[in-house]
TrEMBL record:
One of its GO terms (biological process) is rRNA base methylation. InterPro entries: BMT5-like (IPR019446), SAM-dependent_MTases_sf (IPR029063). Residues 1-43, 253-274 are annotated as: Disordered. It holds the Pfam family BMT5-like. This is 25S rRNA (Uridine-N(3))-methyltransferase.
Length: 274
């Protein structure tokens, strides 16, 4: 009996499958569905290579390095809250390597930059040029308190002060992009409302995909953790929020949505990519 079943299975290998026997008209009808599925998986990149970009709160500068090396960005000012000495201690050895790469590529690296006082930093304002994109990935005040409510309040204050400072350096039709994890306590910060109270409006939001930035790794506020710590930021669900000045209709900086969808996103701040 066992041998008979084996021969039957072998015989079935030579029979045409149901899909192979379908008419050509039915085969072709399934192709658009495959194309749409592939389209949805494309990452959204909220800037263009030629944009003048300000990166705020960089950790080990791996994100800055990636957008220059992999996305061809050529006018980057990458900043860190830490002094250069502290930066190199916290993120040894990769921070020094990343900074060296950026400087060799002619990009600007600034340390000791407070995200809440950007408009007062002479290194950012002396040229008089404004930025097309100001991007702050995973802002966090650090371990100021173990109390969740106080942590939420501290981080809300950080974001509000950042928004109010950044808006002064934003070019006409420019955008501010902030990326947060999609989990508590980050969802408790109510970032959309904070932005609205700071003179901004939501243009859109989309899932942040770390894989879109080869070489990027999420840097913890505390610095390198032996063994990598209990989790990797690159593996966690995250969302990027794109803001613009109230009343402005800036162009959506991405090549992954069609013209019809662009218009829909401009008309509603509730239109999110999934």
């Amino acid at each position: 009996m066992a041998k008979h079943k084996k021969r039957k299975l072998q015989g079935n290998l030579h029979k045409p499958s149901k899909s192979a026997s379908k008419p050509d008209s039915l085969k072709s009808s399934s192709k658009p569905k495959v194309a749409r599925a592939a389209h949805k998986s494309q990452p959204t990149i909220p800037f263009q290579p030629e944009d003048r970009i300000l990166l705020v709160g960089e950790g080990d500068f791996s994100f800055a390095k990636s957008i220059v090396e992999e996305h061809g960005c050529c006018d980057i000012t990458a900043t860190s809250y830490d002094s250069k000495e502290v930066l190199y201690q916290k993120y040894d050895p990769q921070a020094k390597e990343h900074v060296s790469y950026l400087e060799e590529e002619g990009q600007t690296v600034l340390c000791g930059v407070d995200a809440t006082k950007l408009e007062k930093n002479k290194n950012l304002t002396k040229s008089g040029e404004l930025f097309d994109v100001i991007l702050f990935n995973f802002p966090h005040v650090g371990g100021k308190s173990t109390d969740v409510n106080r942590q939420v309040r501290f981080n809300q204050e950080l974001l509000v002060n950042f928004f109010k400072a950044a808006i002064n350096l934003l070019a006409a039709s420019g955008t501010i992009v902030v990326t947060l994890f999609e989990a508590e306590p980050y969802t408790l910060w109510n970032i959309r409302d904070l932005a609205r109270h700071s003179g901004l409006e939501v243009q859109r939001s989309f899932k942040f995909l770390a894989d879109a930035y080869p070489g990027y790794s999420h840097a913890r506020t505390l610095g390198n953790i032996e063994g990598g710590g209990g989790w990797k930021g690159e593996d966690r669900e995250a969302r990027s929020y794109v803001f613009q000045k109230k009343g402005e209709k800036g162009a959506i900086k991405t090549g992954h949505v069609n013209a019809k969808r662009k218009r829909q996103e401009m008309d509603s701040d509730n239109e999110d990519d999934r």
